[in-house]
Write a structure and sequence with these properties.
The protein has one helix at about 65-80; strands spanning about 5-15, 15-25, 30-40, 40-45, 50, 55-60. It is an alpha+beta fold. A 4-stranded antiparallel β-sheet has the order 1-2-3-4, with helices on one face. The radius of gyration is 13 Å and the shape is globular.
Length: about 90
């Protein structure tokens, strides 16, 4: 699996620092990743939906720590490039 594109949309709403969209292998897109500032640094929260009981369940998620770490590294790297302004090279 190769992440072929990441787009970051800064939010800066408290702990929520940005939303992100990720393209895998140029043919599969995952939207609504959230970049969160946690107590131990930033992490990526996967897209989720609210269940009837009020809890949340991830819609998509990595099956192992290696993949989760790779996704987080790519999203955080892109966030640092874009900064809080949201300016990208394409714009």
């Amino acid at each position: 699996m190769k992440i072929t594109e990441i787009k970051v949309y800064p939010a800066n709403e408290g702990k929520l620092k940005a939303y992100a969209t990720m393209v895998i292998d140029g043919c599969f897109i995952v939207r609504d990743l959230k970049l969160i500032q946690g107590e131990n640094g930033m992490f990526v929260s996967m897209p989720s939906r609210r269940k009837k009981d009020g809890t949340f369940k991830d819609v998509v998620h990595p099956l192992n720590q290696e993949t989760r770490r790779m996704i987080e590294e790519h999203v955080i790297e892109e966030y640092k490039k874009v900064g809080e302004t949201g300016n990208t090279e394409e714009e």
